[in-house]
């Protein structure tokens, strides 16, 4: 899919290279979507063409960390208990 965006002409000079700008936008969107629990880390890798470790590195570099709350803790505890 190709997405087109419009920016004011006076801001067009901020775009130093179309390919670099497009990649930066994709990375920003992807990190934001992950932070807001809209996509998984697997989908992050798919969107950016990264393997698992590159994906983890990318997410860490963007401080894209999902909140860890009590329900998450309870699921993790139940999983650990079921392992014996």
What would you note in describing this structure?
The protein has helices spanning 18-35, 41-48, 52-61, 70-83. The model has no long low-confidence stretch (mean pLDDT 88). It is mostly helical and 84 residues long. The chain has one domain (9-83). The longest helix is centred in the N-terminal third of the chain and has 18 residues, at 18-35.
Protein topology:
Blueprint: H1 18-35, H2 41-48, H3 52-61, H4 70-83
Structural class of the secondary elements? mainly alpha
Helices and strands, in N-to-C order? HHHH
Distance between the termini: 47 Å
Global outline? elongated
For the CA atoms, what is the radius of gyration?
A: 18 Å
Fraction of residues in β-strands: under 5%
Measured as a percent range, the helix fraction is: 55-70%
Could you give the count of β-strands? 0
The whole-number mean of residue pLDDT values reads 88
Helical stretch tally: 4
The total domain count is 1
> Spans with pLDDT under 50 lasting ≥5 residues?
none
In short:
The chain is mainly alpha-helical and 84 residues long. Helices cover 60% and strands 0% of the residues.
Q: Notable features of this structure?
A:
single chain, 84 residues, mainly alpha, 4 helices
